Amino acid sequence: MDVHYETEFRSDRPTVIFGSSLGTDGSMWKPQLEALGATWNTVTFDLRGHGKSPLSEVSPSIDTFADDVISVADALGVRTFAYCGLSIGGVIGQSLAARYAERVDALVLASTGLTILTPRALNERADRVLAEGMAGVAEASVSRWFNARFRAAQPEVVAAKTEHMRGMNARGYADACRALAGFDGAQIAADIKAPTLVIAGADDVATPPADGQKLASAIEGAVYQEIPDASHLCNVEQPELFVGLLREHIEEYARGVR
What we know:
Distance between the termini: 26 Å
Strand order of the largest sheet: 1-3-2-4-5-6-7
């Protein structure tokens, strides 16, 4: 299945692919795209049933989403790349790096963990949105995505993200919840060989810093960094700090074009 992706691509530049959070699309990476776009090929893709990507014809797994990343890279003619994923995007990154080790030069896993929530909670959320629609979960999500300071300082950003989530297809969201419910990163962490940076927002209640620390400890050689005054969408709340960490990591390990 073809998923929607966006890029401004030049064959003489290295490539970084961004994996987005549950209930969002590639636009959440705007600060990072603007910061890196002069020297890197920046690629965003929408999960099946999210943004401009169609609904999956079959129930997707995390491995399915990781396979979609490889399909995007293949369509661009990119052999190796850096990958940066946040939340479910970070879970996808774990599958990607473990199963396609030869393709991933550098890995950044943000606001994520070996697991996210519990299978029961995720399946219950999927059932709820299918029965009731997206409005309730959209309103609840903003308090997890952004801390109180950011919600007060930039209400227009919060409103736009909420409205986007309210309008998305409930089955696409439910599919992603069920995919998360079936994933356990502890089973594959030892297979991740790419140089890995794990980032957590200090105020994140959805994937708290302890989850990021546990993830980093499970991946050989991984480095853990915490961003202060940031919650789940730490790349939006603290874009300059996030870009600094991201740039330093990928420029060290994914300079080449191959």
